Amino acid sequence: MDFQHKISVIVCTYNQETTIGRTLDSILSQKCSWPVEIIIGEDCSTDRTRQVCREYADRYPGQIRLIENLRNKGLCDNYFDCLLKAEGTYIAELAGDDEWCDPMKLEKELTILEQHPEVVLVHTDYQLRNESDGKIEPSPANPYPKDAIIKGSKLTPSILTQTRRPVIHLCTAMYRNESFRNVYSAHSDLFRSKNLVCEDLPFMAILSTQGDFAYIDEVTLTYSIGATLSHTCDETRQFHFVRSCTQLSYDLIQRLQLPMDRTFHRYFSYRVFAMMMHAFRTHDEALRLETRKCAARWNARLELRTLLIALLTSNNALWNAALFCRKQLLQLIRN
């Protein structure tokens, strides 16, 4: 496929009528020397998101392509369908509740990709917006080397074992369309799997094997946090989210034929502990048993703290006593 000398920006949106306008405004405000096309994948929202997108598409008919899905495809299918429609040499993406806060974001990344053909992806830092109160805060500390170009494969283990801050936030990034097509062609079965819990982790992990990654130590994205699955307080939902993400990492390690080194062993041990704690707090024996099965499947080395929780939950009386003590301790801390 011959890509056009322009940048394709992908926006996947669903039920974001209050935020999609600011997202699109932040893209339209970019000052870039290359033409920018905006591809919106509107996934059958039940609110006014589609109407807002239509208003923007009518105002910018030569720049915005609105894809109005006839049925709700779900995040992953909507995402990859939009990516496959991108005609630009380079691709950037922005979620329908986030916004770019630097009008030069695309131009800065374009410059690096044009000057360094070995770089397949460039990304930046970001900040957080709490949607409940509008407060802006810095993102968690970033361990990434400052102003660095690094071999992507050196980052693959870090991408696969991230637990708090993503190594690369894709909404800060720009990458080569050709590299995306190569990755998608080789792994479309994975990306189209109905069991895929998230679209960005496998894409970043596999893309990191295709060339170098570059980092700009500047904030270009305001990332909204709030009532998403990864921020919910529901212990059972958190358990299943952690399990699914961890299983995905395990499957990717096998697919990429990576050696199970100390970094991976530490990651799986930590995740098993996290799952055991969710099971403990929910007082759910089925979740406890599922944790032990996952530990065996992932060949996780159980930490002392995990073994202690396993012991406390092995007997219902002990489990009840431990939960009572935890409740009393939390009350003391709050008071």
Can you characterise this structure?
The chain is of the alpha/beta class and 335 residues long. The protein folds into 2 domains: 4-226, Spore Coat Polysaccharide Biosynthesis Protein SpsA, Chain A; 233-334, no CATH class. The protein is built from 12 helices and 10 strands. Strands 1, 2, 3, 4, 5, 6, 7, 8, 9 and 10 form a 10-stranded mixed β-sheet that branches. Helix 8 (235-255) packs antiparallel against helix 9. The protein starts with a strand and ends with a helix. 37% of the residues are buried.
Following the backbone from N to C, one meets helices and strands in this order, namely: EHEHEHEEHEEEHEHHEHHHHH
Assign the structural class, choosing from mainly alpha, mainly beta, alpha/beta, alpha+beta, or little secondary structure: alpha/beta
Radius of gyration (Å): 22 Å
Quickly name the level 1 CATH class of the largest domain.
Alpha Beta
Q: What composes the largest sheet?
A: 10 strands, mixed
* Annotation field: number of helices: 12
What is the CATH H-level superfamily of the largest domain?
Answer: Spore Coat Polysaccharide Biosynthesis Protein SpsA, Chain A
By DSSP, the count of extended strands is 10
Q: What would the CATH topology of the largest domain be?
A: Spore Coat Polysaccharide Biosynthesis Protein SpsA, Chain A
> Roughly what fraction of the amino acids lie in strands?
15-25%
Number of domains: 2
Uncertain stretches? 228-232
The separation of the N and C termini measures 64 Å
The overall average pLDDT, rounded, is 93
Architecture (CATH level 2) name of the largest domain:
Alpha-Beta Complex
Outline type? globular
Helix content: 40-55%
